[in-house]
UniProtKB/TrEMBL annotation:
This is ABC transporter domain-containing protein. Keywords: ATP-binding, Nucleotide-binding, Translocase, Transport. Part of the ABC transporter complex HmuTUV involved in hemin import. Responsible for energy coupling to the transport system. It holds the Pfam family ABC_tran. Coiled coil: none annotated. The keyword Transport applies. Residues 1-222 form the ABC transporter domain. It comes from Hymenobacter antarcticus. It comes from the Bacteria.
Length: 226
């Protein structure tokens, strides 16, 4: 449950969504993707979410859930190229130009060497990077990333933060990125949204605002005895 959220996210922007476990980060994303009902008004680019149909296919929204799983063997490159489905349809054959884009997306994430591997045999962190490469091909206007660095080592964490921050600052996207990783935030420009606060609001990312959020999150959540 998320309550008392009154805010307007600028376009474009990078927004780091933080909060204790269970504070509602995933819930917020599920509301924005139309998977959960809500009270009040939630709009994406001026359109009420409950009235939106297939926002993803309209090119408005790209969503990276916390866990994505696949139970059949598929080459990484074949999975990534599916990020082009909106330009193609899922069942039509992809052209060499699509595969070139898939290879470039893998390279940007730093996992070009995995292109021919079976996705199901990759480590959790490698799979997370491949999903991100696929998402980047969707060319959506708004990206919701649910803890995209959760399983990553320190090198890839920083690399992914830099990459998705670039989506906002260089490519004009609006990126909402939930995370428990505060260490990489002070170097980024954008906003911080702490859902553990009683009345969460956007704060400009700075060393001070990240320090404040950290101090808040190091305390027990409201209503939990320490
Ligand atoms: N399907 C559900 N039915 C009932 N309650 C749910 C459901 N999904 C989540 N919740 C509850 O909603 C609250 C917010 O959960 P949510 O997954 O949004 O938290 P979160 O901030 O993403 O947490 P984390 O950092 O652990 O990923 C939690 O108390 C959770 O138990």
């Amino acid at each position: 449950m998320v309550r008392n959220l009154f805010l307007c996210v600028p376009v474009p922007a990078f927004v780091a969504v933080v909060g204790h476990n269970g504070s509602g980060k995933t819930t917020l994303f599920r509301v924005l993707t139309g998977q959960l009902p809500y009270q009040g008004s939630v709009q994406l680019h001026g359109q009420e979410v409950r009235d939106l149909r297939r926002a993803a296919s309209a090119g408005l929204l790209g969503y990276l859930p916390q866990r994505g799983s696949i139970d059949f063997a598929i080459a990484v490159r074949e999975l990534v190229v599916m990020g082009r489905y909106r330009h193609h349809g899922l069942l039509s054959a992809y052209a060499p130009a699509d595969y070139a884009l898939a290879d470039a997306a893998l390279a940007r994430v730093g996992v070009a060497h995995l292109a021919a591997r079976d996705f199901t045999q990759l480590s959790g962190g490698e799979q997370q990077l491949v999903w991100l490469a696929q998402l980047s091909l969707q060319d959506a206007q708004v990206y919701l990333l649910d803890e995209p660095t959760q399983q990553l080592d320190v090198y890839y964490r920083r690399r992914v933060f830099t990459l998705v921050h670039d989506w906002a600052t260089r490519h004009g996207k609006t990126v909402l990125c939930s995370t428990h990783d505060l260490d990489n935030l002070p170097e980024l420009s954008g906003y911080l949204l702490n859902l553990s606060e009683p009345q969460p609001q956007l704060r400009v990312i700075s060393a001070d605002s990240v320090r404040e959020a950290r101090a808040w999150l190091e305390q027990a959540p409201l209503g939990v005895k320490s």
